[in-house]
Amino acid sequence: MKRKLTLKSIAKELGVSISTVSKALRDSPEISEETREKIKAYAKLYNYKPNNIALSLKNRKTNTIGVIIPQIVHHFFTTVIYGIEQEARENNYNVIICLSNNAFDKEVLNMELLANGSTDGFILSVSKETMMKEDYHHLNEVIDQGMPVVMFDRVVEGIQCDRVLIDDKAGAKKGVSHMIRSGCRKIGIITSEDYVSVGRLRTEGYLDALDDFGIKADDNLILKLDNIDDLSDKSKKRIEDFITNNDLDGVFTVNELFAVHASRVINALGKKIPDDISLVCFTDGQLSEHAVPSLTAVSQHGEEMGRKAASILINKLESAEDEEEEYSTTYIDTSLVERESTKEVTRR
Amino acid sequence: MKRKLTLKSIAKELGVSISTVSKALRDSPEISEETREKIKAYAKLYNYKPNNIALSLKNRKTNTIGVIIPQIVHHFFTTVIYGIEQEARENNYNVIICLSNNAFDKEVLNMELLANGSTDGFILSVSKETMMKEDYHHLNEVIDQGMPVVMFDRVVEGIQCDRVLIDDKAGAKKGVSHMIRSGCRKIGIITSEDYVSVGRLRTEGYLDALDDFGIKADDNLILKLDNIDDLSDKSKKRIEDFITNNDLDGVFTVNELFAVHASRVINALGKKIPDDISLVCFTDGQLSEHAVPSLTAVSQHGEEMGRKAASILINKLESAEDEEEEYSTTYIDTSLVERESTKEVTRR
DNA sequence: TAAGAGAACTTAATCGATTTAGTCGCGTAA
DNA sequence: TTACGCGACTAAATCGATTAAGTTCTCTTA
């Protein structure tokens, strides 16, 4: 086992001072050509790399971004992380990932931990519990210490930070409009209770689309389930009843899971997708792509979201500290991925 | 914006020396009760937390685990990370995640970067390119510097490190045996070329199962595709032909994607799952769970794998440096999750 | 020839913490 | 009265790097 090289060990070996070594390696003109070459050759030979921790301490800069997300076993978050990582790497930043598991306490703990020198800034999507509690002291503390924060997806108001959001409303509208254009007239939506912001926004988009085409909304065609991340037996039953009891020709769901179950129910009723009923869901993940029939989906572009969040954060980190504080809100566009679960729109 | 407290600022404020503050906060008996209380009260009031970077530098220990994986938009890796994070958090470790994107250069770069002080050890699954190149100098260098390494899933031989593996062979055997017990006699396997180790091992498990039940293997019933992570049009076609041209009553696939496509093909042929053909796949992810019909799958327990890898690494990190070096290989057991794609086994 | 310039280094401070090795004053014992 | 011990601190070294502020020594120039 060989010890890592340090400036000190190189200096000792070559019989010069530490600062000479440091300056030589950084091409300072203060050091003679000869000495510089000698030191550089030695450093190269033994593969010297400065210690990141020491640099961080000295520079008061870690070049590390802290990412805090509610869960990682989740396709969307995973794509966002992928985007963050790409952007970070290109700008020489590391990414530390912490999971809050949707728990307030863990979110606070993780933030405090990382805030004590481990990271220069944060990218986070707040946990469900935090949203319910509406306690954001940990965010404010971190921001107060001068660390920039970028929130994505699940954002809250009243925090001095940048935001990157999916345009949920426009996305849902896009999906529902597509169904209408393809001939659907009686479209139901399977969404969440309004207190889940994405559910509310997507429902609004749905209503908007109907309105645009002069279709009257009907409360009976709106099914609000209470958990958007999971599919309980009770929810399954409600989806079954919803589809069985309404004579729909289209169903829009706010996530893949609801759609997959809807597809199953429609299938069981002996109806054909998309001939009898069209199906479109929000979120373009594995399920939409590989389901049978594959599902037309509103794609969220998580990767782009991650890249954008990282780029905003890095920008803040690299810009002058005393610059005027302005906080932006960026909407990431969605796009519609057409697959087997919808009919083609015949264009004029 | 308020600056973070440091020992120095506290010392100045209270008119004592830095070391007095440090000692007081660490309950040293050298400091008088009175002074200690005063300092602790002040620190608590202003929420003093020591700077991690300074501690890392001083202790030559970062309490951070570096995780390097080929890709993150992948359910299995995601579950492993989840396990790693759980175990790490419980032991007060942070997790830095880097993606190699299956590229050798990125893997090397990331490792070198993290090795310069950012982490105490590594958990990694080597990239495809690294396996092909068989160039492991970056691993050896890191190990040579005394950093423990734990490899998981995609491991290579000849490296001084611990290994955590899925018992691919036993898992496949479990799945195939189940099909046989449920009545299947002509079972095909859709696997990868042998140079992909998981493909090879799972094929071996398949053969083992047949052998156990005295069923003769038939090379025509083994389809080897060249990419396990993706499903090219060419591969789709080959799966179609494979299923159409062989009169199978069971299909085992080494991943979900192959199974989903197989299911589609079987469906298109007008055959019923599981009545006409049973279907079992390796990897229990979203697709198996939500496909229609849902798929019986060999579950890999990624979370357990992550936990185990982290626990081994942390153990190495916490144990005396000069302890005898012994490297373990741990197999994580698989389990069979029975779903709609197989018939029930009538037990005696 | 002595001062000044400049080349080529070294010293030392700094980042924020820990810890070993002093220091200082006071009380007690020989 | 001196010396020793002890309580309660402080000073300084250390981790590994950077960098402002010295220090030498040589060479130039008035």
From TrEMBL, chains A, B:
Keywords: DNA-binding, Transcription, Transcription regulation. The keyword DNA-binding applies. The keyword DNA-binding applies. Pfam families: LacI, Peripla_BP_3. One of its GO terms (molecular function) is transcription cis-regulatory region binding. Residues 5-59 form the HTH lacI-type domain. SMART domains: HTH_LACI. It comes from the Bacteria. This is Putative LacI-family transcriptional regulator. It comes from Leeuwenhoekiella blandensis (strain CECT 7118 / CCUG 51940 / KCTC 22103 / MED217). The lineage of its organism: Bacteria, Pseudomonadati, Bacteroidota, Flavobacteriia, Flavobacteriales.
